[in-house]
Amino acid sequence: MNERSARVRWEQRTQQPLLGLAVVFAVAYAVPIVWPAAGQDVRALCTAAEWVVWGVFALDYLVRLALAKRRWEFVRTRWLDLAAVLLPLLQPMRLLRLVSTLLLVGQRARLATQIRLTTYVVGAVVALLMFGSLAVLSVERESPDGNIKTMGDALWWSFTTMTTVGYGDHAPTTGLGRVIAVGLMLSGIALLGVVTANIAAWFIARFESDDVEERRQTAAIEALAEEVRALRAEVAALTGASGKVPRPAPRPGVAAEEP
């Protein structure tokens, strides 16, 4: 129990700093794509920032693993965290670092009790929209047959892809761009499902709350009616035993009336 408490405390304390580092990663990832004319020093700085952020997330995973009492169970239940940590090591690609960082941020954000599902879904939609646009622009801009050449084109393509509209005016032509498109489509369908389920659950909860309140009021009315029936029966019993209706007791300070 103490081991689990130590891990939970660590996760709670590091949640906000890690989310801040995720913002740093987002900026470092976006700058070379949005600013193609950036110098080599700027690109090197952005790449270093991306690896530093990934390294901090990897260190966070190792610390949580060390604090876990049942480490094998921790690895088995947090396999997505492990995959996100190991993913950039398989092939040093910026896209893999992007995917792994998004996975790690998503896992840590779900630990926050103060972040409601709607806020999380909105944040996930915005993050996927922006990072999907940046990722497809980075691989399609240099393609001879590509038609996604500007950030505006990339944003439009990402929005239509996530919503599964697919106008077809812009489409990836490279293999990696199509892989990004598949991931974006699947993510968009999943997020739309979450939004729909969340709205349905809200309506169901409201209806259940109304039903509970109605049942509570009905039970109170039935209890009150039962008490009234019991009082009537008691009055009838007293009347039958004495042959007259019992008079109410006089209030203090008021003289009793003579019959």
TrEMBL record:
- Its main localization is membrane
Tell me the keywords, alphabetical order. Coiled coil, Ion channel, Ion transport, Membrane, Transmembrane, Transmembrane helix, Transport
Q: Which residues form a coiled coil?
A: 214-241
Membrane topology designation: Multi-pass membrane protein
Pfam families attached to this UniProt entry: Ion_trans_2
Identify one Gene Ontology CC term for this UniProt entry. Answer: voltage-gated potassium channel complex
Q: Where in the cell is it found?
A: Membrane
Q: Which example biological process does GO assign this protein? A: action potential
Signal sequence, renumbered to the chain: none
What protein is this chain from? Potassium channel family protein
